[in-house]
Amino acid sequence: MKKYLFLIYLLVAGFSVLAFPPTINEKLLKSFQQSYPHAIQVNWQELVETYAVYFEQDGIKATNIYKKDGSFVRSTRYYQEANLPYYLIAAIKEKFPEKKIYCVTEISTPNEISYFIKLEDAKTWRTIQADGDGNITVLEKFNKAS
Predict the structure, then answer these.
(1) Coil, helix or strand at residue 32
(2) pLDDT value of position 18
(3) pTM value?
(4) Among 8-12, 21-25, 70-74, 101-105, which is the least confidently predicted range?
């Protein structure tokens, strides 16, 4: 019985989000549109203390988080090797010449930027972290299934 009540609650909550879209601060909406003029598939979500906007621009999927006052908190972008800064590509290829860059998750805040990069070769996966200065740290390493 509790499971059914929980499912009903989730359905009602889901429909209420669709019926009452979030009311985003006009200043924030205008600022977002100016910063990302070519954004497509824009979807805003109101959270308890923040707004999240999910979108795609120039083939890059992204999520930005803003405080309710409109101030920027964090951006997360997902992309391929071609969008990495050249100095990072060069540093990675020098340190891991046998690895291929599979994908990148970039997380930026007003104070810093971090890149979480998935590398692969025929036998292994690696996740490395790079910062804006080009410092690289190996976070994890997995063997591929045979």
Answers:
(1) helix
(2) 47
(3) 0.80
(4) 8-12
